[in-house]
Write a structure and sequence with these properties.
Helix content is 46%, strand content 20%. It is of the alpha/beta class. The protein folds into four domains: 119 residues, no CATH class; 292 residues, no CATH class; 157 residues, Alpha-Beta Plaits, CATH 3.30.70; 77 residues, no CATH class. Strands 19, 20, 21, 22, 23, 24, 25 and 26 form an eight-stranded mixed sheet that branches. It has a six-stranded parallel sheet with strand order 7-3-2-16-1-15, with helices on both faces. A four-stranded mixed sheet has the order 5-11-12-13, covered by helices on one side. A hairpin with a 7-residue loop joins strand 11 and strand 12. The chain is rod-shaped, with a radius of gyration of 51 Å. It starts with a helix and ends with a helix.
Length: 725
């Protein structure tokens, strides 16, 4: 494991640890996201509506229009109770508060008036008493609300039994309640709280507390009391967690066991609001009597009396996004219990989700670091799909609420962070590689490599290259008289100055071999007109060396001049990454490379600093070239035609070079034919040569010694074209 990988793993694991701790803390934002996910599940697959004996007696707009505005006098509610009881209602639960006296009672109105005899007042009807008498001995459940004032506690009409540890500490706390009228609380068959989401700021009702506690006594909600009264049951059996106080697992009433959260809440699994659930109170109170279908629906049913009138503001939002009367949620609570369709979030769900973040996050860190971000992304997508499928299966088939967002969000953040770190490292390494290659390749060539697919393929590739070798003349003598540090300084100064011209002309620096440079053109990507660019680089090297010598950049003194030899050849070579698996170089091998090296070695014999092969010379029609004769190269069975690069296009077009080129052609012809005019031509050339280039006098002196290279070898037509172009 490299240091960069160690750092990446460490950073990734720290992020995983932070995400795990964040999920363990379960902040509000995560809870809200989890709730929204579960809401979406219900919207996709809501609880199917089933015809169970539960209905809402709705004080709707039609009822208010028929019998007047709310609140109704309680003698009318008493009449409603009597009519429902006569129809066989199993339980009648009021989703409303009776904390104050009925202001519409005749007795209350008379008491507020002046001058009325108390004896007369005492004989007037009292609606509260009428209502209290009507609910006596009938299955009526009244509601109470939570209050922040006073210390009133409603009476409890049922007993409580426990299994496991006492769950009182888990339940929402009841500090005080809204009071019930004395006669009402005495005569009611059951009393339950009507709060749907106490202490929860969310407008969406997702879970309802089935019980409250003041620390010693338990108080059921309206739905549970209605179910108890309908069954004629007398006791709730509350199950706590074995050995763990303050945790509730289920509640049993009569024949029904209800799974609950640790806080004693029932997750609402709601249906879309249905008209079949509601019966207008107008139909019950109408003097003609309700239709037969209504009477049949009421018989044996649990009834919740409430209002859907918008002006009374008892409207709640369900997980399906619907705004429904609050009373319908009490009805849906009992529907859910009767149908047996429950949702539950097991106590191990949090632990599983926390463990999933830790394990899957760690896995993604190692995959991203040691394999690849692409594989990690595939794994992340697989984890996302698996989490969604598993969560949906648990919801739809088992009724379990497991949060898929925890592992998905944790895995996404971990993958993003690990991938970002790797990209940053790769980008840094890429810049370092680019900077390193910048010493070997031109910026334009680098750009082409970076933006050309497969520009740098592994392995060897046969392609036409123009290869250059550069060597320092008399380097052994120089190194013998200089200390090692001075030799290093000399080489760095010279090779740095010369190598810049390779890069500037889109060449590739292959290697430095002591005092030599090897470079090539047309690899790793195609380089147009690579032969000319190689020759232009050689001419620039000549000019740079002349400037360095003139400036005494090497510190050898004005009398000591440094010389170089340059050999260039164009041919097919194998170029690519070569060497051992653990260490290799991008280089070129083959006969073309060997020929270029031998041509550079021939510079001394020929007496010229830049020599190119015939293959390279064929494409140099703008350059000032002179045929240098056929030279026997080591390892070659035949002689190789060479050409001296005198200068560039400017010199090639000058009158001096044109005249010299004609004399040079005459000289070669005389050498081949051993013409008597050879001495005259040689004399004329020596006068012209120095004016054209300081390198030519030595070239012609040595050319005379190699006269046998030209005997009986008349120039081929293509050679004459090269010389005369």
């Amino acid at each position: 494991m490299t240091r960069t990988q160690q750092i990446g793993v460490l950073i990734g694991l720290l992020i995983v640890a932070a995400l795990t701790a964040l999920r363990a803390g379960d902040p509000s934002l995560l809870r809200q996201a989890r709730d929204v996910t579960f809401d979406e599940y219900q919207r996709i697959a809501p609880r199917p509506f089933e015809p169970v004996p539960v209905h809402v007696i709705d004080i709707d707009e039609a009822s208010l229009k028929e019998f007047g505005q709310w609140p109704w006098p309680r003698d009318r509610l008493a009449h409603l109770v009597e009519r429902l009881s006569e129809m066989g209602a199993a339980a009648i639960a009021f989703d409303m508060l009776f904390a104050e006296p009925d202001r519409l009672s005749p007795r209350a109105i008379a008491e507020d008036a002046e001058g009325i005899d108390p004896a007369v007042i005492a004989k007037l009807p009292d609606n509260d008493q009428i209502f209290a008498d009507s609910i006596a001995s009938r299955p009526v459940v009244l509601g109470f609300g939570l209050s922040n004032e006073g210390d009133y506690r409603p009476p409890v009409k049922a007993g409580f039994a426990f299994t496991g540890e006492d769950p009182a500490a888990a339940l929402p706390h009841l500090a005080a309640a809204t009071p019930l009228r004395p006669g009402l609380e005495k005569n009611a068959a059951g009393i339950g709280h009507i709060s749907l989401n106490p202490g929860n700021p969310s407008p969406v009702v997702r879970a309802v507390p089935l019980f409250l506690s003041d620390g010693s006594q338990f108080y059921p909600n309206l739905a549970m009391e209605a179910l108890r009264v309908a069954q004629g049951a007398s006791t709730y059996v509350l199950a706590g967690a074995p050995g763990v106080a303050g945790v509730m697992t289920s509640a049993k009433i009569g024949d029904f066991v209800v799974p609950v959260t640790a806080a004693g809440e029932l997750w609402l699994y709601v249906t879309p609001d249905r008209a079949e659930r509601y019966i207008s109170a107008r139909l019950i109170l109408d003097g003609t009597g309700p239709p037969a279908a209504v009477a049949e629906a009421i018989n044996g049913s649990i009834l919740f009396i409430g209002t859907s009138a918008a002006g009374l503001q008892d409207i709640r939002t369900t997980a399906l996004g619907e705004n429904v009367p609050g009373v319908s949620l009490h009805a849906q609570t009992v529907e859910q219990i009767l149908s047996g369709h429950f949702l539950s979030r097991p106590d191990w769900a949090d632990g599983l989700e926390i463990l999933a973040i830790a394990v899957l996050g760690t896995l993604l860190v190692f995959i991203t670091t040691f394999v690849s971000p692409a594989v990690a992304l595939a794994c992340g997508l697989a984890i996302t799909a698996l989490a969604l499928v598993a969560s949906w299966f648990c919801f739809s088939a088992l009724g379990l609420l497991l949060d898929p967002l925890a592992p998905i969000l944790g895995g996404s953040i971990t993958h993003f962070a690990a991938t970002s770190f790797r990209i940053l490292v790769i980008d840094r390494e890429r810049r370092e590689v680019r900077r390193a290659f910048g010493h070997y390749l031109s910026p334009s060539l680098l750009y082409r490599i970076e933006h050309t697919r497969d520009a740098l393929r592994l392995g060897g590739d046969d392609r036409e290259l123009t290869v250059m070798f550069v060597d320092v003349r008399d380097f052994t003598e120089i190194s013998e008289r200089l200390p090692p540090t001075a030799v290093v300084h000399f080489l760095n100064t010279l090779l740095d100055a010369l190598s810049h011209h390779v890069i500037a002309n889109e060449g590739t620096l292959d290697k430095f071999i002591g005092d030599s440079i090897m470079a090539f053109w047309n690899a790793p990507v195609d380089v147009a007109d690579h032969e000319a660019k190689a020759v232009r680089a050689a001419l620039a090297m000549r000019e740079t060396l002349a400037r360095l010598n003139a400036d005494d950049a090497f510190g050898f003194g004005p009398d000591q001049k440094v010389g170089i030899g340059i050999g260039i050849h164009t041919g097919v070579a194998c170029v690519g990454n070569m060497g051992a698996e653990t260490r290799f170089n991008y280089s070129a091998v083959g006969d073309a490379v060997n020929v270029a090296a031998r041509i550079e070695s021939s510079c001394k014999e020929v007496g010229f600093d830049i020599l190119i092969s015939e293959e390279t010379a064929k494409r140099q029609r703008e350059m000032a070239l002179l045929e240098a004769g056929a030279v026997g190269l080591k390892g070659k069975s035949t002689r190789t035609e060479l050409f001296a690069v005198v200068g560039g296009p400017t010199l090639a077009g000058s009158a001096e070079f044109t005249e010299l080129r004609l004399l040079h052609a005459e000289l070669l012809s005389a050498l081949r034919s051993r013409s008597p005019a050879l001495r005259r031509i040689a004399g004329a050339i020596r006068l012209k040569a120095r004016a054209v280039s300081p390198h030519l006098p030595d070239f012609y002196r040595k050319l005379a010694r190699r006269a046998d290279h030209f005997r009986d070898a008349p120039p081929a037509p293509h050679k004459r074209q090269i010389v005369q172009s």
